Amino acid sequence: MHVPDGFINAPTSAVTGVVAAGAVAVSLRGARRELDERTAPLAGLVAAFIFAVQMLNFPVAAGTSGHLLGGALAAILVGPYTGVLCVSVVLLMQGILFADGGLTALGVNITDMAIVTTVVAYALFRGLVKVLPRTRRSVTVASFVAALVSVPAAALAFTLLYWVGGTTDIAIGKVATAMIGVHVLIGIGEAAITALTVGAVIAVRPDLVYGARGLGQR
What is the pTM of this model? Predict the structure, then answer.
């Protein structure tokens, strides 16, 4: 889903750059409330894990591959504000070190893969946790669903950005069908990885999982 340089026009890239910069600024302030001496190191580990896993692609269909986006995982483990920062740092490093996503499109990529995935995933996660039994198992289930939905949500956001500022002549209908259809399948892999990771951390150190604070033991 990494957007290269020139795929989205300059005005749209500039607007998303402003949005991304504003979101990062807000997240820097919000992260101070989410992190403490115990959880701050976890944020670094989450960013490193997302960076590593995003480098591993898994086949989906018709020669298409996908990778973990990480917004849901980061938001649930360390909080939504810190999650935006973790994914944004990963995207910045990938763009600088591996040219994975253009630097002029960094605002587009952060808006799409850091902001949209984190906000959608955490909002859905909190909603599910409120209606499910207050147990650790519910956190794992809610993590799966939140991650599953966050990926096609990011694909939809990209489609809208392409509709506004795309520079190719591909019909918007074809873009929507390809992006959303494929990313529903990618979302299944994202959901499985997110649920397994969150479940593993809860089993060992539930006190470190931001989304599990105040929940029961089962």
Answer: 0.90
